[in-house]
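Posted in: Protein Modeling Q&A

I'm a second-year student putting together a small comparison for a lab meeting, and my supervisor asked me to include a predicted structure for HTH cro/C1-type domain-containing protein. I've never done this before, so apologies if this is the wrong subforum. The sequence is pasted below exactly as I got it from our records. If anyone can share the structure token output, I'd also love a short note on what stands out.
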Amino acid sequence: MSVNDRVELLMRHFGLSVNSMAKKLNFSRTTIHNIVSENGRRTSPSHDFYSKLKESYENINLNWLVTGEGEMLLDNEPLLAADSAVEYKVLEPKKTDLQEALAEIKKELQSVNQRIDKLERDQ
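Accepted answer (user: helix_wrangler)
Welcome! Here is the predicted structure, written out as tokens:
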């Protein structure tokens, strides 16, 4: 797996498109496209790219990004599982943030439904 493939994995993990990564790191869309696109030139990331990436995502393991050794993220939760020496698959991220957001939406929906019921009773 090349560094370009690992950048693409990071983008998928963080839910970034070429445009959103370019904007976040203050690079042109073409620069990011040329790093990750199969149809692009597949250029190697610059030192500036690594620096800006690390500033924006402090938990990224740059050693993994450059060499492929270790885990994608510096925290203790493994994100990648090796099927073989060169093949990786992304494991499902934790869904706690989504579950919390869903709980808030359900709570708000209940409140709206209660107001609707009250308005219907008052008519």
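A couple of things worth pointing out for your meeting: The radius of gyration is 21 Å. Confidence is low (pLDDT under 50) at residues 78-91.
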